[in-house]
Every structure is written in C-alpha cells, then in structure tokens.
Amino acid sequence: MKTLLCLLLVLANASCAGWRRWPWGSTQEYPGPMENDVEPLPPGDAERLPPGPEEVLVLRHADPVQVRPAGLTASFPLSFYSKSLRVNSGASVVSAPGGRAEVLWPGGNSLLLFGRTTGRVGSVSRGEPSFVFRQIERAQLEFKTEEQVELVGGARLTVGTGPFVIEHVRNGILRVKNQSKGAGTIAYREGLLTLDPGEVVDLPLLAAGGSPLQSDPGLKEVREGAVFVRWSGQVELTPEAGGLRARALGEHQISGLGLALRMDRGEQALFLPHAMREDAAAPAPAPAPTPKP
Asked: Is the pLDDT of residue 242 over 60?
C-alpha cells in the first residue's frame, strides 16, 4: 500500500510541473523564452540574395566541400560520387580545412579555393563582383576575361589573366601575388593599386574595412611623386623627402595612402611612398673602421 502511494505521489508531482508557474500549463522553467530584439527579423541570404541569371560549375577536388544554392537556407556536401554541381549566381561555396574546390565560369574563368576558404558567386548583371570572399586561407584566380572579385574586408581585385594567388598570411594581413604575365588592379579604400607581373602586396584587414571609398568632390588634391593626398580646411602641406608633410592649423580633413586623419592643432603627419618608408625604418650602416697607420 505504501509503495502504491509513493508511486502515485511521484506521478502526480511529475504531471503537475506545469502548475508551478503562471499561467498554468507552461513547462518553461528558467530562463524564459527568448524574445526577438528586432521585429520582424531581418531577412537572411535566402531572401536578400535571390538566384541570379549567371550559371557556374562547382567542382570538388578534395574533401570537405559544401555548396549552398541560392534561395536555400542550408548547405550540403559534394560527395565522392557527385563531385560537380551547376548552380546559379547567389550560391555559396564552402571549403573546409583540407578541402579544395573550383568554380568555373562559362567564359573560362577559374577560381580555386584551398583550405578554410568560403565565398559567394556574385551576379554581374546585378552590379556585383564575380565572386565575394567571406573567408580566405588560400585562393588562386585564373581569369581569361577581365572580371572583379571582392576580397575579405571589401577591397576589389580586377584581373583578366592569371594566376593571382591570395593568402591570409597572418592575423590582419591579406597577401596578393601576381604570378601572371599581365597586370591587375586593387581598389583599396581611396587608393587604386596596380599589381604588375611578379609583384606582391600586403593589404591590412582594418576594422573599418577596405571597401573603395567615394572621394568628396569638395576636397583639394595635391600630388608629390608617388604620394597623393586629398585635404580641406586649415592644413599646411610642404614637400619633404619625396613625400608630403601635413601640419594641422585648425579644423580640417585630410586623407592619403588609404588613411583618413583627424589631427589636433600643431600635430603633423608625414606621407611617404612605401619604398622610402622601408628605407627610413632600416638601421643606418655602421661606419667603416679607421685604418691604423
């Protein structure tokens, strides 16, 4: 009898869990249900990026590789018996550590993704780059026709040849190598960099991003050698050592070499070409020893 009574008490306690809170019937203990900070929720990629008219071929060369076609909310892996897939622009390609994927366009352009590299196929007809990188470990471009890709951070790389190699060499630095016989250009903030055959450039991944900036038509422009500076307000600019020295005299706005500066009155900034900055940072050679008589 006691055993039956204990069993009934246990069952009654379990069935009455919803009576502990008001309103009755809720089984949520703690914490309460999550509430949306934004109502309605912002649209995801499936709604924000509908499929475009362009079609590309995605190939899996090494596992693991996943593809998320445009309009879907989840990706799926390319298995060993289904190594290729045709998708429309707006689709995402994910290469995980150890993986290698290739994106082929009808015109012959090719993009290889190595390791932890992800991105989205852009729609040129909608004014987007051919490919938008979201993460890069290593990638290689081999283009037959001139197209544009968006790098991590927002910088735009325009090439019509190849190969061009993009690597995330260390934290905060993206390296672009031109291993082709033609030139390419990189639009980085307010600068336009020309990458000739054999040249290498390191792009800082800034918190403010590296997207190309639209220049203010009201700014004055001055060039000294390879240094190009835009400014307005109370600034004194003087040529110095192949570059420009700027001294703030009051309210002003000045930008150059990819930087936008705001200085206090009396502060100075020296804009120098990259090669001259390296020479200035190098230690001076030690003086030759005086010969003994």
From this structure: yes
Is a pLDDT exceeding 70 seen at residue 1?
no
- Does residue 39 belong to any structural domain of this protein? no
- Same-domain check for residues 195 and 227: no
- Please report the pLDDT score of residue 86 as a whole number: 95
Closest Cα to residue 148, out of 109, 102, 181? 109
Interatomic CA distance for residues 152 and 24, integer angstroms:
51
How far separated are the first and last CA of the chain, in Å rounded?
119
pLDDT mean over 189-195: 83
Q: Please tell me whether residues 162 and 255 are part of one structural domain.
A: no
CA distance 145 to 130: 11
**Residue ranges making up the domain that contains 256:** 220-281
Whole-number Å distance between alpha carbons of 161 and 182: 6
Q: Find the radius of gyration of the CA atoms of the chain.
A: 29
* Residue scoring higher pLDDT (209 or 7): 209
pLDDT recorded at residue 2 = 64
Distance of CA 221 to the CA centre of its chain: 29
Pairing relationship of beta strands 84-88 and 76-77 according to DSSP bridges: unpaired
